[in-house]
């Protein structure tokens, strides 16, 4: 302490330490708050972006049944391109412009007419205006047999008439005879209405599809599966099949 200075210039060590601590703390408070705000804003923006992408661009989908074997397997996890057919804007009933229209041979994800809240995945085999029929498991569209290398036939025998099939098909069958009796393997010919499509599972003998509950309207088609991003065998006896029974060879597999 310099005795030549006036008293108000005198500073004790305690004063110096307190001022130092105060100066050290004051600039950090807004910095911490700013960092916390930046982090919160980043998380919120990322979450909002995720919701937008999920609603309008791409969505994950799990295969729960074997109706599309061997194109798709139970335990496959898919990324579905929702933008290609024009994604629906949630809560509005409006759709974004489509990049393409559904076509024969496309594998599509849709909401079936009898279970509108569920997602199904099947292969689209007929478009609006097409005449479609099946003769002993062989598919014909507009009078021409369709080459279907992806189809799996598990039951070579025929089957009896299905009452549910007749109930809806008789309204669309061409020149329906009085005794029209459609079965799983033989039915039609049917004319596909406007803005509607006919879908079948590739596992033709084990698929609940348009044969039983009718056509899929255009506004029910949600997207086209893109590729398998993860897959495991749920029938595996190993303790945690999602970890120990991974089908590594299917990861990245494109859906065709």
UniProtKB/TrEMBL annotation:
One of its GO terms (molecular function) is signal peptidase activity. Keywords: Hydrolase, Protease. It is a single-pass type II membrane protein. It comes from the Bacteria. Its EC number is 3.4.21.89. It is an enzyme of class 3 (hydrolase). The keyword Cytoplasm does not apply. It is found in: Membrane. Belongs to the peptidase S26 family. This is Signal peptidase I. It comes from Gaopeijia maritima. The gene is lepB.
């Amino acid at each position: 302490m310099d005795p030549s200075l006036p008293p108000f210039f005198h500073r004790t060590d305690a004063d110096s330490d307190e001022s130092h601590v105060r100066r050290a703390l004051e600039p950090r408070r807004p910095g911490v708050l700013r960092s916390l705000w930046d982090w919160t804003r980043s998380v919120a923006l990322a979450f909002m972006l995720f919701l937008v992408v999920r609603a309008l661009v791409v969505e994950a989908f799990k295969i729960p049944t074997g109706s599309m074997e061997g194109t798709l397997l139970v335990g496959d996890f898919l990324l579905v391109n929702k933008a290609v057919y024009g994604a629906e804007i949630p809560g509005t009933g409006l759709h974004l412009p489509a990049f393409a229209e559904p076509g024969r041979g496309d594998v599509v994800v849709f909401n079936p007419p009898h279970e509108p809240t569920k997602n199904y995945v099947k292969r689209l085999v007929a478009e609006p205006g097409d005449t479609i029929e099946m003769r002993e498991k062989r598919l014909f569209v507009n009078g021409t047999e369709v080459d279907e290398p992806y189809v799996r036939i598990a039951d070579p025998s025929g089957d009896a008439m299905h009452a549910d099939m007749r109930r809806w098909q008789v309204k669309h069958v061409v020149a329906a005879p009085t005794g029209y009796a459609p079965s799983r393997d033989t039915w039609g010919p049917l004319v596909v209405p406007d803005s509607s499509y006919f879908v079948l599972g590739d596992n033709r003998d084990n698929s609940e599809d348009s044969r039983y509950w009718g056509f899929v309207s255009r506004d029910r088609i949600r997207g086209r599966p893109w590729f398998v991003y993860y897959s495991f065998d749920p029938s595996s006896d190993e303790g945690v099949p999602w970890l120990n029974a991974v089908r590594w060879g299917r990861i990245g597999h494109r859906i065709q």
